[in-house]
Write a structure and sequence with these properties.
4-stranded antiparallel β-sheet; 45% strand
Length: 248
């Protein structure tokens, strides 16, 4: 029941309290942190947004304009940030000092991804993905062909990973088309993070952890492949045939 932010300066061997708070409403906790250069932003329950200008050594809290749960935050650039939570999307254009709220869209937005002018927000409660290509000024809604909780990661503007309920899905077309990774021991993922465009980790339920060092190698674009039901290779004009899909 203590809202806290921990910081390490030696690769995780030791951790120190960077921020502690017991005065805001219960329950008190931070959900997500993002960092660019020495500027860091943290978001959590009660609409809490913390800001640091010294790489997380000290923190101050700013007004978010909402008391809703905020699940995730991402830098799109040094001054531009996006955050999302329960029935709210947030944007800052001054490094997190002040925020504008957008309550036009309803749902539980569990994660956000930002790459330059492109912004994504995952709505697990509606099985949709919101996408903006103009820094969050307007959005389009993408209906997903799989069930998920809203956890996503943008490797670049067009390459997205989504944690489906039955596996990880990848889109290389900005959310338009998706393919599924075959992961027999899959457990529900709760977060992705990447060191670069090739090396990333996903973590989730039951201690599940999965690593890739060659993201671009899979998947390649599918090639149409099929068999003809009942076989045969010679047909006459007007014959009816049934194709059996064998595409991977």
């Amino acid at each position: 029941n203590t809202e806290m932010i921990l910081r390490t300066a030696n690769g995780g061997s030791n951790w120190n309290y960077a921020s502690l708070n017991t005065s805001v409403g219960l329950p008190r906790y931070i959900n997500s942190v993002d960092l660019i250069a020495a500027r860091a932003i943290a978001v959590g329950n009660n609409g809490r947004i913390g800001r640091s200008t010294n790489a997380g050594v000290t923190w101050s809290f700013v007004s978010s304009g909402t008391t809703n749960m905020i699940y995730d935050v991402k830098f799109a650039a040094y001054d531009t940030l996006f955050a999302a939570g329960d029935n709210v999307l947030l944007k800052s254009v001054n490094g997190g000092l002040t925020w504008t709220t957008n309550t036009t869209f309803t749902g539980s937005f569990k994660s956000v991804a930002a790459k330059g002018n492109v912004f994504y927000a995952g709505n697990g409660s509606a099985n949709t993905l919101l996408k903006s290509t103009n820094y969050g000024t307007s959005f389009s809604t993408i209906n997903l062909p799989f069930t998920w909780l809203g956890i996503l990661y943008a490797v670049d503007k067009d390459t997205l990973l989504a944690a489906g309920n039955d596996g990880i899905y990848v889109s290389k077309t900005g959310g338009q088309y998706w393919e599924k990774y075959i992961l027999p021991a899959y457990n529900q993922l709760k977060m992705f993070d990447f060191l670069n465009n090739q090396t990333g980790i996903g973590v989730g339920n039951g201690g599940y952890c999965i690593l890739t060092t060659n993201l671009s190698a899979a998947h390649t674009n599918p090639i149409c492949s099929f068999n003809i039901l009942r076989g045969g290779s010679t047909f006459c004009l007007g014959d009816s045939i049934t194709l059996v899909n064998t595409t991977a």
